[in-house]
Amino acid sequence: MGRSRISPEAPTADGHGSPGSHRATRAKARAGRETRAGYAFLAPWLVGFFGLTIGPMLYSLYLSFTKYNIFSPPRWIGFDNYVRLFTQDPVFIKSVKSTLQYVLVGTPIKLAAALGIALLLNYFSRGSGFFRSAFYAPSLIGASVSVAIVWRAMFGTDGPVDNALSVFGLDLGGWVGNVDLAIPMMVILSVWEFGAPMVIFLAGLKEIPAELYEAAEVDGAGAVRKFVSVTVPMLSSVIFFNLLLETIRAFQVFGSAFIISNGTGSPGGRLNFITLYMYKRGFADMQMGYAAAIAWVVVVFAALVAVILFRSSRSWVHYAGDNR
Amino acid sequence: MSDTQTPDTQTLEAQAPDAQTPAAPAVGRRWRRLGGPRHNPAATIAWFVILLGLTVVMLYPLIWLGFSTFKPSSEFGRNTSLLPWDPSFDNFRKIIRGIAGVPLWRYFANSALVASLAVVGTLLSASLAAYAFARIRFRGLGVFFAAMIGTLLLPFHVVIIPQYLIFNQLGLIDTYVPLVLGKFLATDAFFVFLMVQFVRNIPRDLDEAARIDGAGHPRIFWSVILPLLRPALITSAIFSFIWAWNDFLAPLIYLTSPSNYTLPVALRLFNDATSTSDYGATVAASFVALVPVLLFFLFFQRFLIQGMATQGMKG
Question: Does residue B2 belong to any structural domain of this protein?
Fold first, then answer.
């Protein structure tokens, strides 16, 4: 698998500048045919893109400037929703804080676990297949309602986690109802799903040329030095990719927080993640305009994170072929 | 399922951080393949023990769930051991009788229908789009490709409310249309991207040969690309099935009558209504909901893991 950057093949200008208008017209006709075929094949995607993504996005942007409860038509109120969110809605502020805590603490831990265990699995290739599968499985089901129900039981009062910790003299009680432990519990759930980024790391590790390690050894590098000077730089594009995708994903956590808190976001609003808050405002209180404004705040947050990551990536991400 | 990657020297050398300079390459290669002298036995054992311990921790929630399905409701909160005191099939009997007056098989069938439609829609629409992006040169290609990549990163929040309002306006609430329409329109960029990557690796000579024989794009797509795309199609089918099966938010918003519920929403109902009185049944239903996903995983894990790995290799 090549490591080319994302870019579609550039449209060719075959025929342009060629002598003889006859050939030029034929090329033009061919380009026309190609374009028609292209749009025919792309038709379902185009309908989806405009009808279910771009159109609704613009609609929700409009709604975010209105007061709308479905039953009477939307009423334009300018920036009121946004002003209210940031100045008069402590629940929203708290929701943002909880979400950021979850995202900014959970994602690095999850990726560190994924990378660490990928390195461990990469140490031997024989026998690692079983472990790779066992570690990957949770990432397929982690977001399901079933697992959320299990999590609530595992971390509840007198649940297996509580009991296990009591053996070591740690009487924390149930995590589910504890204001300080609710977010850590969600972080553990997120870390439990480290399998997906781990598999991506493993594929990246396999692409690092062995010569680099050999050269480093010749220069007398130890294990740590090889990790820092060979593995990390060679893996940086994969680290970047995982960081970007997992961060955006973490912002979208919904089902597990909903189930574990019974749709309330308790204890103390710690599980009232921004998605859950938006859901409650939109679908329980029917404040569609307000909920749309919350959604746009999330988009701006996610975009900011993406921009920061892309900016910073210039200094630490190396692509194969770059002379750096 | 077995380990799929074939160990070659290159990977093995890259994998041996403690390796010294190879003395006799051929022998060294073989030894290393066997986990030979380059790894001392103590390190090998430590490696194995650490990973085994981690496996137990990772799988414990599932093991706990499996055993708990046989615990009568009265034991929850009292029996703290993994094993039930008085194992019984009562929980299963209860869920077969039903949640909210609807038997469990009905939710199961609803989920299976939605997930199957999601698979069909995804395979059709994503493969068409991928062919266009990877093989046809047309005006606007660059812009749309960038837009498709952009939607990979778009938080879904922003379309939930407007989509709900649109489907509400169209009178499609409490139908499966809102749940599956997007799948037929390739709105999940993950699958389009996965297939684009795959099509790009199919040699263009094959297209050219078909074109010389007079085949147009539809023919090339159908007879050349699609058969070779099989592994990516299988990966996409399994992922789209599992994601649709697990999806919670969309059915929660769009489905209003219990007889139309998919499993996750039904579970939520069960969880709310009976969590204090009938914990055992909730646990058993949760377990049943996971079984198809786990079966898919057991049989198709090679495709799932490769699909995931490919995703990261776009650089």
Answer: no
CA distance to partner chain B, nearest, from residue A199 (Å)? 6
DSSP one-letter code for A67: E
Rounded distance, CA A226 to CA A299, Å? 39
B3 in a structural domain:
no
Tens of pLDDT along chain B (315 residues) come to 333 333 333 333 333 333 333 433 444 444 344 443 456 788 888 888 999 999 999 999 999 999 989 988 777 767 777 788 888 888 888 888 876 677 888 999 999 999 999 999 999 999 999 999 999 998 889 999 999 998 988 888 899 999 999 999 999 999 999 999 999 999 999 999 999 989 998 999 999 999 999 999 999 999 999 999 998 999 999 999 999 999 999 999 999 998 999 999 998 887 666 545 578 888 898 999 999 999 989 888 888 887 777 765 543
Are residue B133 and residue B27 in the same domain, yes or no? no
Q: How far is CA B119 from the centre of its chain?
A: 11
What fold does the segment set A89-316 form as a domain? MetI-like fold (1.10.3720)
Smallest CA-to-CA distance from B235 within B290, B179, B193, B187 is with: B193
Verify whether the Cβ–Cβ distance A44 to B311 is below 8 Å.
no
User: How many residues belong to chain B?
Assistant: 315
B114 and B49 together in one domain: no
Nearest to B149 among A6, A140, A278 (CB): A6
DSSP states along B148-194: HHHHHT--THHHHHHHHHHHHHTT-TTSSHHHHHHHHTT--HHHHHH
The answer to whether the CB of A107 falls within 8 A of the CB of A246 is: yes
Nearest by CB to B156, from A48, A158, A252: name it. Answer: A252
ipTM: 0.86
Contact B186 A288 (CB under 8 A): no
DSSP B263-300: HHHHHHHHHHHHTTT-HHHHHHHHHHHHHHHHHHHHHH
* Model pLDDT for residues A202-260, shown as the tens digit of each residue: 988 988 888 888 888 888 888 888 888 889 999 998 999 899 989 999 999 999 999 99
pLDDT tens-digit series, residues A178-196: 899 999 999 999 999 999 9
The residue segments making up the domain with residue B213 are 104-312
**Candidates B20, B61, B139; nearest CB to A35:** B139
SS3 (DSSP) at A75: strand
How far apart (Å, rounded) are the C-alpha atoms in residues A200 and B310?
8
Q: How many domains does chain B have?
A: 2
- 3-state secondary structure labels for all residues of B189-252: HHHHHHHHHHHHCCCHHHHHHHHHCCCCHHHHHHHHHHHHCHHHHHHHHHHHHHHHHHCCHHHH
pTM: 0.85
**Cα–Cα distance, A194 to A137 (Å, whole number):** 10
